[in-house]
Amino acid sequence: MTACLDTAPPAASLPRATVRSNVTVPLQFPDGFRTTAEVFTFHGLADGKEHLLLALGSWEQSLLAQDSETGVAPLVRLHSECMTGDVFGSERCDCGPQLREAVEEIAAVGGFLLYLRQEGRGIGLYSKLDAYTLQDNGLDTYEANLALGHDEDERDYSAGVQMLQAIGASRIRLLSNNPDKAAQLSALGIDISERVPTGVHVSEANLAYLAAKRDRTGHVLELPEPVPEVRRPGFHTEAPSPETLISLVGALLPRLRERASETEELRHLPESTMTDLRQAGVFRLLAPKGVGGYGMGVETYAEVVRQLARGCASTAWTAGHLMEHVWMLARWPKQVQDEVFALGTVPLAAATGAPVGAATKVTGGYSISGHWSFASGVMHSEWALLAVDCDGVRLQALVPVAALELMDAWHTAGLRGTGSNDLRADHLFVPDYRVMEWGHLSASDNPGSLVHPDPTLHIPMATLLNLVAPSTALGAAEHALELFQAQLMVRKVKNTTEVRQADSVLAQARFAEAFGLVATARLHWEEAVRILAASIARSGTAPTDTEPTGTEPTDTERSRYRLSLALSGQASEAAVRLIVAGSGGSAHRLSHPLQRIQRDVNVLLNHPTLSFDPIVEQAGRGLLGLGFTVRSF
Ligand SMILES: Nc1nc2c(ncn2[C@@H]2O[C@H](COP(=O)(O)OP(=O)(O)OP(=O)(O)O)[C@@H](O)[C@H]2O)c(=O)[nH]1
Ligand SMILES: [Zn+2]
User: Fold this and answer.
1) How far apart are CA 284 and CA 220, in angstroms?
2) CATH topology of domain 242-342
3) Could you report the per-residue pLDDT of 120-159, keeping only the tens digit for each?
4) pLDDT tens digits, residue range 7-26?
5) Distance from residue 153's CA to the centre of ligand 1 (Å)
6) How many other C-beta atoms are found inside a 10 Å radius of the C-beta of residue 223?
7) Which residue from 51, 75, 76, 82 has its CB within 8 A of the most atoms of ligand 1, so it is best to mutate?
8) What is the spatial distance between Cα 464 and Cα 476, in angstroms, rounded to a whole number?
9) Active site residue 155
10) Could you name the CATH architecture of 459-623?
11) Which ligand is nearest to the CA of 199?
């Protein structure tokens, strides 16, 4: 039966269902979100299936409110079963993230999640999988149903309406983007006071599916422009807009959160995360257009790192550096660029300057030796950029990782997933063309950077690097605040009597303070990004082969930039500390995301780019016009 208005039975003809049982079930999702559901079962449902109703949050109050003129009716989602998406995290649809989001949203305001056993829009699991095979051969999700002899959508929401009536919900706020759901419910006598859109959970794998929902059945969905698929060697397509890239990164959050503890255990990023990052196009962000990159600006870079950190700080840190090292390689002489960007691939490189190794000049190149630490991302890199000293001149050597000894040294309390291991070389030959003077590399321009018109290529090296730690700390603090809020709504604390934590005055004040600190962190971070973007914009036109236009930021700009970033980091750390202190002992279980966020942020605050004392010292000098005593501050 096609589920549409004409075929739906009139309200009066629906038999009454009754509540059969109810039982309390505490829920915990893979990302750590917890709440408690009152799960209801029913007698007399029209199709005889075992549908569930999960009553969430202050659902009883929401039922009382539906009858008052000013009250807010219960928030309700009718979620159709999707075994592949709900249980196994399939990326072919958006069901898993929608379900997760719905539980949280409903729990926050009170209402019901109806879990309806209508797998595959009512055609069943096997048929849905057959439909996927047809979609792999070019049919869209609706054409595939028709080709299998089914209707586009065979769902009938009569049982859902019976359940709502049995629980006493006659006026609801419907959480859905699907106009057919709303139409069927109204026709069956449910008063929909408001339609609340669900989030749009876009991924590379489900974009076509969501576009078909929007274009064929009028789902209200805002989707990014079609994005190019992962570039194969030699394959060039248009770059996405920064907004599209940011929304693709945003769509990764649920997966990054799910993988955060696996990432820690591995002590480097899982391959699945690297694949997600590549597919989203993240590593092309800062690469100039001339080598197949997106040539995007610092605003997008900082935002992408921050977004990734809302999922997993180790991922944000690693990706932030790998992106930045692509940018570094695009500023090497042409011969190196041709080698590393061969066939349109994006080279991944680790870079480390600590401690500095030794180089001696030999015929045709250098012989280098050293033991370098903190090579973030090296586990995923083909190349390493290593600092060496030759007769008092600081150089950087580009070396294939395969030529180095990789040492398992990254055993830390935080940022455990960054795989920032050690590297060793003993009298390794590096040809002349793969060695550059540090001074050239760190200046806003050098002969290699002049190959590219993209404005972001013409800024000093350290400026971009300074963004990674504060953007990561900010995203992590924002995630902590989100977790804190969700927890306050459900966690019980002992006052004189036991109350929900959100109803305790102290918790309310603590939440407001944490909220304010995160806002402070964001404002300082925005200020820093604005200062940097303005200094880049001032360089005006693109440089030519002979005329560099790269602008060194002034001492005042540098001071304000670093100071804002340092203050942002401090506020992020303070927010996380406050949140963890108000979250009870269970926040320190290794399975709880808050303790990981705190460990990650603590390590970030000890990174030289956020280390407060030396930064305020130099910033003070710069603001007083005394000049810096630290090179490339
Ligand atoms: N036949 C078929 N069913 C699919 C396909 N992809 C997802 N589904 C099913 O579609 C249903 C998803 O429904 P809902 O989550 O209720 O979403 P919706 O009706 O599209 O609308 P919203 O309320 O806005 O989310 C689940 O039963 C999935 O199993 C597909 O390609 N073919
Ligand atoms: Zn699904």
Assistant:
1) 31
2) Butyryl-Coa Dehydrogenase, subunit A; domain 1 (1.10.540)
3) 999 999 999 998 988 877 778 888 888 888 899 999 999 9
4) 444 445 789 999 999 999 99
5) 9
6) 18
7) 82
8) 19
9) yes
10) Up-down Bundle (1.20)
11) 1
